[in-house]
Structure formats: structure tokens, C-alpha cells
Write a structure and sequence with these properties.
The protein is an all-beta fold. It has no helices and six strands.
Length: 61
């Protein structure tokens, strides 16, 4: 899927699978920025919620 955020702020975006808690890097080739508008492409989705967030916001145990 492709997602666009018109007013984002990402330095190191990651994909978080909220079902199992795994965190995946998003390849630089799969995201772009134009001003404050961010576009993410080739994001895998399935029948569980996922989250795109900046890695600095994810707390690891």
C-alpha cells in the first residue's frame, strides 16, 4: 500500500506490526519527502493494524 502524510516529521521511519510488536525498517527507496509531506510506498498490510512511526519514538525493552 501507499500512504501519504501531508504534515509529517520522520528522520528514521519504521513499520511497527501491532499484533506481534515487531519493528521493521522502511527502506529509503520506499519513502520520500517533499517539504513536510511524506510518502511511503510498498508498505505491507494485512488483517492487523500497523503503525508508521519514527524510530526515536519506539521504546525497546
Amino acid at each position: 500500500m501507499t500512504f501519504e502524510f501531508p504534515a509529517g516529521c520522520f528522520k528514521n521511519p519504521v513499520l511497527v506490526d501491532l499484533r506481534n510488536g515487531k519493528v521493521f525498517d522502511i527502506s529509503k527507496k520506499d519513502w520520500s519527502v517533499n517539504g513536510t509531506s511524506y510518502k511511503f510506498e510498498n508498505i505491507p498490510v494485512y488483517d492487523s493494524p500497523v503503525l508508521i512511526a519514527d524510530r526515536t519514538l519506539i521504546k525497546f525493552k
